[in-house]
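Sequence design from tokenized structure. All designs in this work follow the same two-part layout: the structure record, then the generated sequence. An example of the structure record is given first.
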């Protein structure tokens, strides 16, 4: 079946024509990867995944799955598989989490601009978030185009930041919010160092690789690096680079964490349930299918 994409924003993002991803095989999977390189994030409406089908699709599309999540460091996954991240405000009993629940606090932190698993090495590549149960109010996810933001930097800034590397730590970003992991939890989330500017030979493009998890620029004194990271984030999250996705039940949204940032928007989460499941792949070389 032919797949078509409709652009969602002037610089990135697209919506797919009707397609059942449970059945997706090559060469369709390669068309989706190519579209991901081009658009940075894709919306696939009306999907019908059970848990295993969502996991299987993610592996077929992009290889090895990320399971060392911050959620796994806090509590056991309610679906019994740490690669299927529970993006919800609901506990094992099916009820909305109490307002001071640590799992809720960790979820609320998704409202910071971030990239999934940038605190891992290899980092996260694609994230695939599937809407299973939505509140009757808007609870959008926003995406920011880190390639367009990089392109618009002035040449001096591009030259200055070209060789910088950044330490990413979720223990740091949560601490800034006033949420602290225990020593044992922190030991499971040691952080990672990645280049500030990513280069993609496939598309000839570059991207800023930022996040609230970005703790310091390794080549600079800590305060100076933090100020540069703050300025770049402010630049890269200006309205012109941002798209808000309004969720519909059955949407699967795939984003490339290397070329986009994202954040959750607030809603009355002590009143309404919102349940999505996310699978994230690791940024490893793809093994060609036999
Ligand atoms: C995620 C995430 C945002 C949201 O799933 O990685 O950040 O709106 N989600 O739920
Ligand atoms: Mn996220």
């Amino acid at each position: 079946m032919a797949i078509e994409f409709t652009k969602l924003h002037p610089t990135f993002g697209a919506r797919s024509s009707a397609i059942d991803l449970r059945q997706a095989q090559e060469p369709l999977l390669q068309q989706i990867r190519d579209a991901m390189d081009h658009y940075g994030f894709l919306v696939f409406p009306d999907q019908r995944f059970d848990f295993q089908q969502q996991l299987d699709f993610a592996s077929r599309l992009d290889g090895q799955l990320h399971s060392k999540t911050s959620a796994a460091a806090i509590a056991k996954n309610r679906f019994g598989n740490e690669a299927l991240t529970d993006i919800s405000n609901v506990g094992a009993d099916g009820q909305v989490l109490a307002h001071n629940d640590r799992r809720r606090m960790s979820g609320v932190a998704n409202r910071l601009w971030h990239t999934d698993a940038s605190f891992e090495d290899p980092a996260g590549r694609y994230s695939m978030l599937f809407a299973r149960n939505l509140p009757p109010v808007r609870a959008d996810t926003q995406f920011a185009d880190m390639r367009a933001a990089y392109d618009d930097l002035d040449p001096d800034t591009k030259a200055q930041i070209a060789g910088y590397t950044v330490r990413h730590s979720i223990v740091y970003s949560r601490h800034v919010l006033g949420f602290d992991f225990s020593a044992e939890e922190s030991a499971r989330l040691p952080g990672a160092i990645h280049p500030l500017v990513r280069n993609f030979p496939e598309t000839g493009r570059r991207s800023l690789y930022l996040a609230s998890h970005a703790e310091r620029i390794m080549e600079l004194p800590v305060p100076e690096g933090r100020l540069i990271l703050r300025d770049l984030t402010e630049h890269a999250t200006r309205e012109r680079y941002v798209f808000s996705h309004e969720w519909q039940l059955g949407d699967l949204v795939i984003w490339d964490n290397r070329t986009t940032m994202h954040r959750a928007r607030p809603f009355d989460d002590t009143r309404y349930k919102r349940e999505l499941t996310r699978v994230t792949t690791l940024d490893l070389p793809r093994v060609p299918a036999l």
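The chain has a mean pLDDT of 95. We note this feature because it recurs in several other targets discussed in the main text.
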